[in-house]
From TrEMBL:
One GO cellular component term: cytoplasm
Region (Disordered), start-end ranges: 477-502
Domain of life the protein comes from: Eukaryota
Residue numbers annotated as active site: 80 (phosphoserine intermediate)
Start and end residues of each BPG-independent PGAM N-terminal domain: 100-321
Protein name: phosphoglycerate mutase (2,3-diphosphoglycerate-independent)
Limits of the Metalloenzyme domain: 21-543
């Protein structure tokens, strides 16, 4: 069926071609009731407030979590990968989390090429499992790791080493202890069955291993030293003691725990990665595993000194980059996100500029284009990255590069060299993840200022804007009870919510180029992020392909 589809898009019956369309994605910017823990509400955000007044015809909310973005259930919060995939692809795909669930439930994971490949190391080598240890469901899920541990041992793994990355970002800070206990319990059961299974190393996800978009290779190096070389500044006899001890530092935070290795009575690391071993990175999400995948797989590599490059059999939980075919072995085939709006528009001559700062750059390029790196049409596209701050938590620089991104985008708009400009403004999300309420308020204000710069430029060229978000975060910064009341400890302190939320996100359209009769339809109350691509195509003057989720807009006579 897909092969017979044409790439050429039909002209829209009512909407003209030739307007510059500015698509702004506010990362981590959900819609929620006014509240002191709603940083978007508390912050001074005149631009977004004005857009909201355009509802219901030019402002509304759309779903950004759960099944609306291809996640297993409606209890799953949205995230950048699935959010930008849906925004760019215009279609809802079963995402990595769900595909892994299905492969584990059916047992097919053990019959695939990837598992058969690593299995060859089980006789004489160790199986290493590296990944994020939590039930956040954004990059990985602990229940999938538990099933994989059991399944791998039943399929011949005799010696297993788990290299954990503590979370505190997609889940509450401090929850690392309970997740380590859970896995230690499972490993003890495996040991009872004669499998030599232990946690071998660990560290906080933002400080060890899980950098993204090559922002800071030192993060990956710290992980490499612990996981592969068995070297780290902290040494403990077991992981529970490690996490508990490291958390005694008053400034400790699961996201940033320093690297540690587990050692035996004689102080020797119990699980460095050696020649002949098998390695699985058990995150299903790509962005924060690609860098490690390169270090594990590429013979030639110059990002840091690996000291030792063990000859291993390596598989990702998924293939993380479809264009680079990385890693070349994987346990579960990733969703085949095809016929994205980026590809359609490039093939129909639309000139596109995409911009963000490093920590979100791949969101408006790689994720937007269906986890595909590179351009569709280099002559028509320009992707520009503004370097992010390195090595500081974002609550220390909450304005991030919002204004710089907006100014570059303004220049791109005013150059009139592009038909679409697409940006991601990171503050609501990146500062929201720190749990620092004051800083998040500052970040939201900066994001609003950046939006104004882009909208002013759109105004100058007679263009159209679409302002939306990929999922919630900054609009709710506190852990709540079932009735929605903030939970307080005995001293009256609230527990900051560092994660994303289940809230819907706003979408606003406008600009001088928007024809007077264009408004949001009222017959799609459950629409979600995947409905945005068809909307944007319409605003470029094209009908959307019929396999896309329906457009959010209609044109009425005025
Ligand atoms: O990777 C992260 O920073 C978080 O786990 C999820 O945030 P994102 O989906 O907004 O990137
Ligand atoms: Mn995001
Ligand atoms: Mn986030």
């Amino acid at each position: 069926m897909a092969e017979t589809r044409r790439w050429e898009l039909a002209a829209h019956r009512r909407l003209e071609k030739g307007k510059v369309v500015g698509v702004v994605v506010l990362d981590g910017w959900g819609e929620a009731a006014p509240d002191t823990f709603n940083c978007i509400h508390v912050a001074d955000t005149p631009t977004l407030d004005a857009l909201k007044k355009g509802g219901p015809e030019r402002w509304r909310v759309i779903k950004a979590h759960g099944t609306a973005v291809g996640l297993p259930t409606d209890d799953d919060m949205g995230n950048s990968e699935v959010g930008h995939n849906a925004l760019g692809a215009g279609q809802i795909y079963a995402q990595g989390a769900k595909l892994v669930d299905m492969a584990l439930a059916s047992g097919k994971i053990y019959e695939g090429e990837g598992f058969k490949y690593i299995q060859q190391s089980f006789e004489n080598g160790t199986l290493h499992l590296i990944g994020l240890l939590s039930d956040g469901g954004v990059h990985s899920r602990i229940d999938q790791l538990q099933l994989l541990l059991k399944g791998a041992s039943e399929h011949g793994a005799k010696r297993i080493r788990v290299h954990i990355l503590t979370d505190g970002r997609d889940v509450l800070d401090g929850s690392s202890v309970k997740f380590v206990e859970l896995i230690e319990n499972d490993l003890a059961k495996l040991r009872d069955k004669g499998v030599d299974a232990r946690i071998a190393s660990g560290g906080g996800r933002m400080y060890v291993t899980m950098d993204r978009y090559e922002n800071d290779w030192q993060v990956v190096k710290r992980g490499w030293d612990a996981q592969v070389l068995g070297e780290a500044p902290h040494k403990f006899q077991n992981a529970l003691e490690a996490v508990k001890k490291l958390r005694e530092d008053p400034k400790a935070n699961d996201q940033y725990l320093p690297p540690f290795v587990i050692v035996d009575e004689r102080g020797r690391p119990i699980g460095p990665i050696m020649d002949g071993d098998a390695v699985v990175t058990f995150n299903f999400r790509a962005d924060r595993m690609v860098m490690l995948a390169k270090a594990l797989e590429y013979e030639s590599f110059d990002k840091f000194d690996r000291v030792r490059f063990p000859k291993i059999r390596y598989a990702g939980m998924l293939q993380y980059d479809g264009e680079l075919k990385l890693p070349s072995h994987f346990l579960v085939a990733p969703p085949e996100i095809e016929r994205t709006s980026g590809e359609y528009l490039a093939r129909n001559g639309i000139r596109t500029y995409a911009c963000s700062e490093t920590v979100k750059f791949g969101h408006v390029t790689f994720f937007w284009n269906g986890n595909r790196s590179g351009y569709f049409h280099p002559n028509l596209e320009k992707y520009e990255e503004i370097p992010s701050d390195i090595g500081i938590p974002f609550n220390e620089q909450p304005k991030m590069k919002a204004v710089e991104i907006a100014k570059k985008t303004r220049d791109a708009i005013l150059s009139r060299k592009f038909d679409q400009v697409r940006v991601n403004i990171a503050n609501g999300d990146m500062v929201g993840h720190t749990g620092d309420i004051e800083a998040t308020i500052v970040g939201c204000k900066a994001a609003d200022e950046a939006v104004k710069i882009v909208l002013d430029a759109i105004e100058q060229v007679g263009g159209i804007f679409v302002v939306t978000a990929d999922h919630g975060n900054a609009e709710d910064m506190v852990k709540r009870d079932k009735s929605g009341k903030p939970l307080r400890d005995k001293d009256g302190n609230v527990q900051p919510l560092t994660s994303h939320t289940l809230n819907p996100v706003p979408i606003a359209i406008g600009g001088p180029g928007l024809q007077p009769g264009v408004r949001f339809r009222s017959d799609l109350p459950s629409a979600g992020l995947a409905n945005v691509a068809a909307t944007v195509m319409n605003l470029h003057g094209f009908e959307a392909p019929d396999h896309y989720e329906p457009t959010l807009i209609e044109v009425v006579d005025k």
